[in-house]
Write a structure and sequence with these properties.
Layout: E1 34-36, E2 40-42, H1 45-81
Antiparallel strand pairs: 1-2
């Protein structure tokens, strides 16, 4: 078994409440922290609102792209089902 050595014995990962997720402003011990989606901290309502708007824009673009690909799939499916098929008996001599 091998281990990865980071080079610094005293290195600690920063705590997720150390800074605003959007602007990286340090969060004080006695200041309000505005949370979003569980564990994402923000320094102000404005930063949190900006992140909400960014996420909503991403979701809209994902929905748009997925709905357009669904529409293309249904178009190709419809064209395949609208083909004329002749049925009958064929006699071969």
């Amino acid at each position: 078994m091998s281990y990865y050595y980071a080079g610094c014995v005293d290195y600690q990962e920063p705590h997720f409440l150390d800074a605003c997720h959007l602007c990286r402003k340090p969060l004080g011990f006695n200041s309000d922290i505005f949370m979003y989606r569980g564990n994402t901290p923000f320094c102000s309502k404005e930063c949190r609102q900006e992140q909400i708007e960014i996420d909503e824009a991403k979701e809209r673009s994902w929905k748009k792209s997925s709905s357009s690909s669904s529409a293309r799939k249904s178009e190709s499916k419809n064209t395949a089902t609208n083909k004329t098929v002749r049925t009958g008996t064929v006699a071969v001599a």
